[in-house]
Design a protein that fits this description.
- By secondary structure, the chain is α/β, with parallel strands linked by helices.
- It contains 13 helices and 12 strands.
- The strands form 2 sheets. It has a 6-stranded mixed β-sheet with strand order 3-4-5-2-1-6, with helices on one face. A 6-stranded mixed β-sheet has the order 8-9-7-10-11-12, with helices on both faces.
- The chain is flat, with a radius of gyration of 28 Å.
- The protein starts with 23 loop residues before the first strand and ends in a 7-residue tail after the last helix.
Length: 457
């Protein structure tokens, strides 16, 4: 269910389009062959389609064995039918699910039959979009559906499930309520300047500001943790040939993902490996060694390596402690994205005194636990933190904007000037929070959110 709007909070507008006059159909299970495949139908013609395909409208919310009929009276398949009358359904509309044998031909025939009976193909995420429009879920919950499906670890799945249950939305709603109540105080001072001019300096106002600040801090921490679980960390391993880049990739992955030899230039293309450190997904990319070379293939590998470095969240730049860094080598590395020097082969030699970065041996594993902790810190991830919300970059951006607006309002309150501007900043902060749950939406935002969904969800 969608998190209810706080009592007395303003109704924020949405210019999102509505398309629920159509009946939509899609396969709700992954492409390919499986024991069971599901075709989902939603919209006003659902009952008529059920009667045509099944010979009757099934008893609501009971699994019914039925033959699925084609347009000539023949049988497409025999399976289970589930009917959910609106508004007590996922989309809020009449919904029919046909559970048949999971072959692509059977699924295609069932979809074609629904199309013959006036349905149209669903757009990506359109079932969830209708659930949003019909107030079954809010926008943060809708995004949590996609995050749950795409979860890369058990921790990410738990965070997404919590957000789907409305935990994140509830905290955002409560924060918005606190800001609204402060806004009421400010607007009262505007309306009654002679009688209530001093109340803005009262302990109650200070307490409200303190509560809002604490709520922002707690939500931001949980959202950053959830974003790390959701998006993971993109890490590029770079450095000169034979610094041990592929050995580090293998050590982090826990298996031989890359070929390791003593021959410089063994790695000529980009190698990708997905690992998890205490539940944090990390996308590790091994790249070709960086050096001057006349070999066209090796030069292309280095071009790709530099391109991956520019796209990374963090670059691990390996240096062979037995050889050391060339003059100016580390100083010439870019500041964006961040670069962490990693001194490898400490089983053979020590890094120079005062060397910044991490010190490891990819061969023996020395220093790897500390390196893993630094990777988690780079993502803002704290293992064992059960308070994460499945969050995305747009959620953090909206929270940041709302927080800045409240801080600006608090500064104006302290100056006892321009109360009208204080009220407007608090209104804009509420609006920014409304973007998270979908109380404030736009066509572009909804298109961006739901277009990333699979067709049948």
């Amino acid at each position: 269910m969608a998190t209810p709007r706080a009592s007395g909070s303003p109704t924020l507008s949405s210019d999102a389009p509505r398309s629920d006059a159509d009946t939509i159909v899609a396969v709700a299970t992954p492409p390919g062959r499986g024991g069971i495949g599901i075709v989902r139908i939603s919209g006003p013609a659902t009952r008529a389609i059920a009667a045509a395909v099944l010979g009757r409208v099934p008893v609501p919310r009971y699994a019914t064995t039925a033959a699925f009929a084609d347009g000539r009276g023949g049988t497409i398949d025999v399976g289970l039918a589930l009917f959910f009358p609106g508004p007590r359904s996922f989309t809020g509309e009449d919904v029919l699910e046909l559970h048949g044998h999971g072959g692509p031909v059977v699924m295609d025939l069932l979809v074609r039959r629904a199309l013959e009976l006036s349905a149209r193909p669903a757009r990506p995420g359109e079932f969830s979009e209708r659930a949003f429009h019909n107030d079954k879920i809010d926008l943060a919950q809708a995004e949590a559906i996609a995050d749950l499906i795409g979860a890369g670890s058990a921790e990410a799945a738990r965070a997404a499930l919590g957000s789907l249950a409305g935990e994140f939305s509830h905290e955002i709603t409560e924060l918005g309520r606190c800001i609204m109540e402060l806004r009421v105080f400010v607007e009262a001072a505007i309306d009654f300047p002679d009688e209530d001019a001093g109340f803005l300096e009262s302990a109650e106002v200070r307490d409200r500001l303190s509560e809002i600040s604490a709520r922002f801090a707690a939500i931001e921490q949980a959202a950053r943790q959830g974003r790390a679980l959701n998006e993971g960390l993109s890490v590029v391993i770079a450095g000169r040939p034979n610094a041990g880049k592929s050995s580090l990739l293998n050590a982090l992955a826990g298996h031989d993902a890359a070929i390791v030899t003593a021959i410089p230039g063994t790695t000529r293309d980009v190698l990708r490996e997905h690992i998890a450190i205490d539940g944090l997904p990390i996308h590790v990319i091994d790249t070709a060694g960086l050096r001057d070379s006349a070999d066209a293939i090796e030069e292309e590998g280095m071009r790709r390596a530099r391109a991956e470095m520019r796209r990374a969240d963090l670059v691990l730049y390996l240096v062979d402690t037995c050889v050391g860094a060339a003059p100016g080598e580390l100083e010439s590395l870019p500041d964006d994205p961040p670069v962490l020097p990693v001194w490898n082969k400490i089983d053979l030699a020590e890094p120079p005194p005062g060397a910044a970065g991490a010190a490891i041996s990819a061969l023996t594993g020395a220093g790897l636990p500390e390196l893993r902790e630094r990777l988690k810190a780079a993502a803002g991830y704290r293992s064992g933190d059960a308070g994460a919300y499945s969050a995305r970059r747009r959620h953090l951006d909206a929270l940041s904007r709302a927080k800045r607006l409240v801080q600006a309002a608090a500064a104006r309150l302290a100056e006892r000037a321009a109360f009208e501007l204080v009220a407007e900043e608090l209104r804009l902060a509420q609006r920014a929070l409304g973007e998270i749950t979908g109380e404030v939406t736009s066509d572009a935002l909804l298109a961006a959110v739901f277009s990333s969904f699979c067709i049948g969800k």
